Amino acid sequence: MEQKQQRGFPTEEVTLPSKGLLYPKESPLSKGAVEIKYMTAREEDILTNQNYINNGTVIDKLLQSLITTPIDYNELLIGDKNAILVAARILGYGTDYEFEYKGQHVNVDLSELQDKEIDESLIKNNKNEFFYTLPFSNRSISFRLLNHGDDQKIANEIKGIQKLDKKVNVLSTTRFKHTILSVDGNYEKSDVRDFVDNQFLARDAREFRKYIKHVMPDINLDIDIDMPDGTLEEGVSMPIGVGFFWPDAGI
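User: That's the sequence. What structure does it adopt?
Assistant: Structure tokens below.
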């Protein structure tokens, strides 16, 4: 992160894991970096706003307040948002992050977290579209990496479905419907949705999830933890919530 100055407030430039390669060239995000300001009392008010906490928007409200680059927040890829999240935490409260895991106290140095390496050869003309052949059915699909706006659409669609039946779980299929762009060259949305509902093999879906994680630009939030019995638990996902920013708040 490189320190700058804007409107009397110090800011830092945060490099995006995507390097800006998946945004339209006219988007400020295509530069591969954004500026964020240091946290103030205003941001602490956001972190303790009960309405934001209850409706699950507190982290997004915080980041929107911190990002000084004039971006469309809905365009922000999930992996890039994660990187900004970690940078904001470091600027606000330092590099040490402590949490409990299976009754054990864990301390992480956030400055040691690294961006994932991405295969730039898969990205053409700043287009967010990737291609994959499902290993068991041999169907060819293309897909996109989701951004913040997509996550909001998915959440709203799921809420609408659960109003009719609260017990139904459609998270995986709904995310697939918003992720997959085409099946065997067919980009018709209704056909893609039909494929997900009626033809998408479970074992293909599992491998597809792995491939999405492989190609998605992100900061690596998986850590290894030494357990008291001498074993090593690898690839533990670091918990992130309101307490990630302000653990003393008890939220």
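The chain has nine helices and ten strands.
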